């Protein structure tokens, strides 16, 4: 069984995994487009996102305050396993029904948030470590639709910075991340 959310996550997950697997430990201290995060910090956050959104699919509480260091021996393989669990968690149609008890938002919106975090943070990490990254057009369309619905509230709550003007030659993904306050031309240098 699958849902639209799990199908989008199934497309985004291997792309994120490819970026994560290619990050070397000596890149952990590099800056990222998320000003407050180094590569190591953002990897830890992305790991937390992948785990917590599994719980949220099951309407369980997510512990965003947990700062367990997940980047220990075998972390890349564990990240792969957790992204597979994320996709599976959102494949159950019940995961998309009703309202999230923890956030008070429709479960479909929570699923979109999982997709956005996975996609945008993979883009952040790719930028920080000099890797290519592309997202599927259906994923980008979901990011744009989410920003149409939730962008202003996300900015007010600090989840997104003020939009940045994308250059005329920007890709669709670069335009989407610019709406979230990221500079499409960002580089670590």
From TrEMBL:
Xref: InterPro entries: CHP03086, DinB/YfiT-like, Maleyloyr_isom, MDMPI_metal-binding
Matches recorded under SUPFAM superfamilies: DinB/YfiT-like putative metalloenzymes
Top-rank taxon: Bacteria
Molecular-function GO terms, alphabetical: metal ion binding
Domain named Mycothiol-dependent maleylpyruvate isomerase metal-binding: residues: 10-126
NCBIfam families, alphabetized: maleylpyruvate isomerase family mycothiol-dependent enzyme, TIGR03086 family metal-binding protein
Designated name of the protein: TIGR03086 family protein
Organism: Micromonospora carbonacea
């Amino acid at each position: 069984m699958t849902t639209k959310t799990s199908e989008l996550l199934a497309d985004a997950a291997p792309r994120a995994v490819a970026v994560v697997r290619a990050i070397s430990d000596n890149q952990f201290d590099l800056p990222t487009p998320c000003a407050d995060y180094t590569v190591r910090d953002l990897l830890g956050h992305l790991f937390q996102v992948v785990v917590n959104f599994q719980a949220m699919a099951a309407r369980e509480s997510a512990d965003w305050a947990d700062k367990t260091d997940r980047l220990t021996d075998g972390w890349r393989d564990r990240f792969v396993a957790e992204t597979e669990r994320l996709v599976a968690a959102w494949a159950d149609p019940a995961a998309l029904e009703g309202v999230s008890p923890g956030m008070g938002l429709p479960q479909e919106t929570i699923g979109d948030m999982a997709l956005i975090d996975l996609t945008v943070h993979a883009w952040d990490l790719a930028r920080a470590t000099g890797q290519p990254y592309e997202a599927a057009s259906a994923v980008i369309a979901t990011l744009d639709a989410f920003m149409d619905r939730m962008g202003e509230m996300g900015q007010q709550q600090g989840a997104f910075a003020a939009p940045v003007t994308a250059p005329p030659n920007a890709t669709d993904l670069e335009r989407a991340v610019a709406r979230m306050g990221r500079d499409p031309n960002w580089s670590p240098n």
